């Protein structure tokens, strides 16, 4: 059964109805004329949807900031199970037709759909998170140097392990997640070559649930913990919650991803087991795109966030992590070397 899309729209009921039709694969209105309305930012979620305590929720935080600051109408819309590129394209086009600007697709899975939608609606600014392949005058590719934050996560893991075994759990075996793995493994090995890294991917494709299955994440983490891993880093979206749950149950460390997962309400009962999180500021990227459109100077092309810009980082929310002077010094030194170019972090 296809999951019905959850939609949050601050606007008229007619807009909600049109969005619902597009989200559920209903018939979209024909034509490509763009509304001249005063609607603002709209986001279309990636697999896992709103409530993933990670990637999608960070995008929603950016939407909420823009909505509060600019006082305009916004929309956020869920994916559906088993959807096609055509479904995604219809969703993006429906938002553009109704006058939302910018329209952001959260995740690389929107690439094909966004290329087509952007061509059809040239007056609308589109943004795609985590993809740099869409080349169009009205598209901003919002990408990050995830490998740099992951390197620092590797430093933290190598400094925190007592068993000399740490784990990496990737949601889906794709180039984006390879960046997380490569940076993490390099950070571990540069810090302590004697530490063994166990790496595992949950699925080969997103359709198999690699980013949306906490049970898969939990099983993978339990397997690594059985092999003596006492720090496990997950880059797996919603599936990462299962990794964190397994770490808490076995009294080992988990490292979160994308958002500061120590602060996530849904993960509160596990927070003492979350050492840190390798964050990328999707919220800032989404908000900044909205602001650029509001200011009449829309961002386009590749817009990259990295350690130097402060848009990737490690969280310091866990006091045990923040107050560990030796650990903090090691991370600070590594960060300075990455920013200066002394350390070249691998992305694959």
How would you portray this structure in words?
The chain has 348 residues and is α/β, with parallel strands linked by helices. Helix content is 40%, strand content 19%. The protein has a seven-stranded mixed beta sheet, sandwiched between helices. It has a six-stranded mixed beta sheet with strand order 8-7-9-10-11-13, with helices on both faces. The longest helix has 17 residues, at 175-191. The radius of gyration is 20 Å and the shape is globular.
Short description:
40% of the residues lie in helices and 19% in strands. It has 348 residues and is an alpha/beta fold. Strand 4 (103-106), helix 4 and strand 5 form a beta-alpha-beta unit.
Write the layout of secondary structure elements.
Blueprint: E1 7-9, H1 13-23, E2 42-44, H2 55-70, E3 75-77, H3 85-97, E4 103-106, H4 111-120, E5 126-129, E6 139-144, H5 146-160, E7 165-172, H6 175-191, E8 196-203, H7 214-226, E9 231-235, H8 240-249, E10 253-258, E11 274-280, H9 282-294, E12 301-305, E13 312-314, H10 319-322, H11 325-340
Parallel strand pairs: 2-3, 2-4, 4-5, 5-6, 6-12, 7-8, 7-9, 9-10, 10-11
Antiparallel strand pairs: 1-3, 11-13
Helix pairs in contact: 1-3, 2-9, 3-4, 5-6, 5-11, 7-8
Q: Tell me the number of strands.
A: 13
β-strand percent reads 15-25%
Specify the biggest β-sheet.
Answer: 7 strands, mixed
Oligomer: single chain
Cα radius of gyration in angstroms: 20 Å
Query: What's the N-to-C terminus distance?
Result: 37 Å
Overall shape: it is globular
Structural class: alpha/beta
Low-confidence stretches: 1-33
Helical content, roughly?
A: 25-40%
Count up the helices: 11
Strand order of the largest sheet: 1-3-2-4-5-6-12
String of helices and strands: EHEHEHEHEEHEHEHEHEEHEEHH
The residue-averaged pLDDT reads 89
């Amino acid at each position: 059964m296809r999951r019905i899309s959850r939609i949050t729209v601050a606007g008229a009921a007619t807009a909600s109805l049109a969005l619902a039709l597009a989200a559920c694969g209903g018939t979209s209105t024909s034509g490509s004329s763009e509304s001249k309305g005063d609607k603002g930012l709209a986001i279309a979620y990636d697999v896992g949807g709103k409530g993933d305590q990670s990637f999608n929720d960070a995008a929603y935080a950016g939407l909420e900031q823009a909505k509060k600051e600019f006082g305009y109408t916004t929309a956020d819309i869920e994916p559906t199970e088993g959807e096609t590129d055509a479904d995604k394209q219809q969703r993006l086009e429906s938002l553009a037709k109704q006058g939302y600007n910018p329209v952001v697709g959260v995740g690389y899975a929107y690439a094909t759909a966004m290329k087509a939608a952007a061509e059809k609606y040239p007056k609308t600014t589109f943004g795609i998170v985590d993809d740099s392949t869409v080349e169009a005058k009205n598209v901003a590719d919002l990408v990050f140097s995830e490998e740099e934050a992951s390197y620092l996560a590797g430093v933290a893991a190598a400094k925190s392990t007592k068993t000399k075994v740490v784990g990496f759990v990737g949601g889906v075996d794709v180039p984006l997640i390879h960046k997380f793995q490569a940076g993490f493994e390099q950070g571990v090995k540069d810090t302590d070559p004697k530490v063994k890294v166990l790496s595992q991917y949950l699925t080969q494709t997103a359709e198999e649930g690699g980013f949306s299955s906490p049970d898969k994440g939990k099983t993978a983490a339990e397997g690594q913990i059985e092999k003596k891993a006492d720090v496990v880093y997950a880059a797996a979206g919603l599936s990462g919650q299962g990794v964190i749950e397994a770490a808490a149950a076995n009294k080992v460390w988990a490292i979160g991803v994308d958002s500061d997962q120590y602060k996530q309400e849904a993960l509160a009962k596990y927070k003492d087991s979350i050492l840190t999180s390798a964050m990328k500021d999707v919220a800032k990227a989404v908000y900044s795109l909205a602001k650029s459109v509001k200011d009449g100077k829309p961002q386009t092309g590749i817009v990259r966030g990295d350690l130097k810009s402060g848009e990737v980082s490690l969280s310091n929310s866990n006091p045990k992590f923040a107050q560990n002077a030796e650990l903090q010094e090691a991370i600070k030194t590594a960060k300075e070397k990455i920013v200066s170019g002394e350390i070249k972090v691998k992305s694959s």
